[in-house]
């Protein structure tokens, strides 16, 4: 393990809020005391996530599902399945992509871009340090997204599993 991967002296939130662009859907995430902010922070560059988010890199933070709750109604929430069993949730009013979730897991991959700005400015590193799993890196765009991840941290997978590729 590299030295920076063990660095753990950054501000960590106990709870965050976020929501979609139009405000119809608001949520809160409470993190357990032992939440690993390094391991839970990752990204995906697969074509599904790119098309879904409109961003070249989907920056995700995996939270325990039992710490996630809605603060509003979910009337405008829709789940799209590009792959069976994998939820891609978005607001049908404004289009914000909120999370990715494997229904067989007990986690939820929050789209970090929809976390409220005050939490991003205070806890951005905790939420988006990319020290966890960074997948589908074979889709990296030279000179653009291949410089995004700190090569001293995290694991780059060429696809969603298999051999690590740095
Ligand atoms: Zn919305
Ligand atoms: Zn993806």
From TrEMBL:
Key words, A-Z: Lyase, Metal-binding, Zinc
Gene3D superfamilies according to UniProt: glutathione-dependent formaldehyde- activating enzyme (gfa)
Keyword Secreted: no
Residues of the signal peptide: none
The keyword Translocase is annotated on this UniProt entry: no
Domain of life from the UniProt record: Eukaryota
GO molecular function: carbon-sulfur lyase activity; metal ion binding
Domain CENP-V/GFA: 16-137
UniProt similarity note: Belongs to the Gfa family.
Name of the protein in question: CENP-V/GFA domain-containing protein
Organism in which the protein naturally occurs: Daldinia eschscholtzii
């Amino acid at each position: 393990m590299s030295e920076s991967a063990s660095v753990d002296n950054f501000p960590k939130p106990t709870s965050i809020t976020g929501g979609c662009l139009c405000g119809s859907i608001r949520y809160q995430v409470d993190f357990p005391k032992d939440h690993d902010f390094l391991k839970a922070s990752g990204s995906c560059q697969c074509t599904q996530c790119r098309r879904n988010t409109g961003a070249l890199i989907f920056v995700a933070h995996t939270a325990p599902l039992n710490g996630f709750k809605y603060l509003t109604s979910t009337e405008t929430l829709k789940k799209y399945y590009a792959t069976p069993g994998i939820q891609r949730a978005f607001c049908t009013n404004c289009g914000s992509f909120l999370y990715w979730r494997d229904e067989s897991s007990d986690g939820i991959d929050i789209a970090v871009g929809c976390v409220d700005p005050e939490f991003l400015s205070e806890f951005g590193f905790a939420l988006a340090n990319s020290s966890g799993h960074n997948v589908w890196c074979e889709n990296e765009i030279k000179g653009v997204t291949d410089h995004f991840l700190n090569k001293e941290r995290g694991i780059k997978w060429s696809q969603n599993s298999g051999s690590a590729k740095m």
